[in-house]
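Table S2 (continued). Query chain:
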Amino acid sequence: MKRYQKISAGFTLAELLAVVIIVGMLSILGVGYYNKSVEQARFREGEALGIAIAESYARWCHERMLENPTKDSCQYTSSNGTAIWTPPLSSLDIEIPRSTPCNEGDLRCIKTKHFKIEFPNDGVLHVVRGDDWTKTYQLWLNPSVRIGGNQSFKDDIRCVIKKARGPEFCQAVGYLNCSVPSGQDYYACTRPK
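Corresponding output:
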């Protein structure tokens, strides 16, 4: 008489549930890291876009100063007598693909898929992630640092983030010197030199 041994094939329910739980936990961690890396890549995209616009502004300014060598800055006077420090974005020799004005007729603010780029008349270029920077971050570039000097735009870029969010995102993308300016509710972070 032959004896047959019962052979168990497959997994028990407990083993299967353990595997499902482990895979679920790994996927949750993976999605978090993926989202973080996507946001850091978008930050770099905004940084590159800001630097390209700032360099275009420096070229525009340099050409204006060559036309009138007595000028010591790029300031000019508009037709209504207002002192203008920054040109309309349409005056620059750069094309930003798939961009639209923030508001109809707005010459100093455009939107792309991920950023709002503002070039107000204070000479500082703002690259804002999304529409509301209180929920994200923004970059401040000061293109005038390059005019008449050898300083790079990258030496004067600031990653700005609301105080409530903390400086961790800016620090994660390399802007380590963070401080809260007196009386403000945001961190301004710069790169170490």
